[in-house]
Amino acid sequence: MTLIYEECLRPAIVSLNPVDRSRWPITYSTAMTLYRDQKGQFHFGTLDFPSHLLYKLGSKLLELFQKQDGLQDAFFVHELRGTKGVSHHNPHDAQQRRAAMENVFHLFDMSLIRPEDWVVDVALEIQYEGHVLQWLTKGHRRLLQFLLPSTPESKIDSILASQSQYHCDLSAQLKDIGGFRALPGSRGKDDNVYYINIYTTDKTATYQLHKGIFMRRQAWHLFPASIGRLIKDLERIVEIFCLCGNSPRVGGQEGNARLEIRVPFSLADKVLLKMPDSLVQDSLVAFDCKLFWYFKYYRMAALYYMVKNLKSSPTAMRLLPASLMLGALVIYQINGLIYRPAEGRAEKILLEASCQHL
Predict the structure, then answer these.
(1) Helices of type H across the chain
(2) Which of 13, 286, 322, 349 is deepest in the core (most CB within 10 A)?
(3) CA distance 236 to 232
(4) 3-class secondary-structure state, position 12
């Protein structure tokens, strides 16, 4: 990074817009010192650059890269975000399907694209007003049969039994409801399906890009120095679950069911055109918003009081093996109400060991 910044990026900026010489840190190390706090975390600001010079900046960077060992074949990769929300359409209408595709790809020069090199995620989303929808785990087989119609039963069985191709994502630790992720591999070759993701959107109430109150907890959050912060976070989480169940202004927080598959570009407007009603009935369950979120509310409230009791327990009792195992299991259950079950070996060992004694 030092090489890129000092020999390529800053010289390119300065050569195109000399006035920026005073705005960009003089070396990479001074930049890192400037943006890193006392805990070692970065806090990046922004540096403006004239938009009309951006195309020249790209060419200048590539020119300077050519002079550095290991950077001669550098190229730019652009990530286009925000396409999911702009392509909603009626899957039964061929014209709407085509318009949605064109709306997503209008920024690209299609004459330069080889469609066979591209894959596209296509989704079907189901909404039931005033309800939270959840996938039934017993319906996973039927969903795979629907999405992989050319795949024999024996291969469906193999996918469901594979720890690398099938991952069940339980909701709130309830074995009857949850989505799944699947990588069919060669077993999905005949249907040109590379990836399957079945989930629900109720997670938007707790999904954060940063470490906030909904972060995945660790057992050390029960240590004396941090348990107070955990209790305050749990108080707020309980309040939010209650509001999701019945907000005074807008009612409950709904949750839609979403089914996504990754297919070749050529099939993007030809898949998920219709989902049979019988499949919907066999694979989905609808909960009233109040029922779903109050279930989470009461479970999290119970865990909150357990953490408060742990905090107020005498030190000697906190050091007992049974108390330590109880605390670890409480953390596991807090995470289970917010996230899918942890897949690491350590979490499984913890759960199995705790359940033998509690």
Answers:
(1) 2-3, 10-16, 28-35, 54-65, 94-105, 140-147, 153-161, 227-245, 277-283, 289-312, 315-318, 321-338, 345-355
(2) 13
(3) 7
(4) helix
Chain-centroid distance, C-alpha 266: 26
For 126-175, the pLDDT digits (tens) are: 999 999 999 999 999 999 999 999 999 999 999 999 999 999 999 998 99
3-state helix, strand, coil in the chain (%, to 5): 50, 15, 35
Query: What is the token pair recorded at 224?
Result: 């004396």
Tokens of 243: 């509001």
Residue whose structure tokens are 């069919």: 184
Residue 209 has pLDDT above 90, yes or no: no
Residue carrying the six token digits 């339980």: 170
The two beta strands, 257-264 and 119-126, are antiparallel
Q: How far apart are CA 250 and CA 296, in angstroms?
A: 19
What's the rounded Cα separation, in Å, for the pair 235 and 230?
9
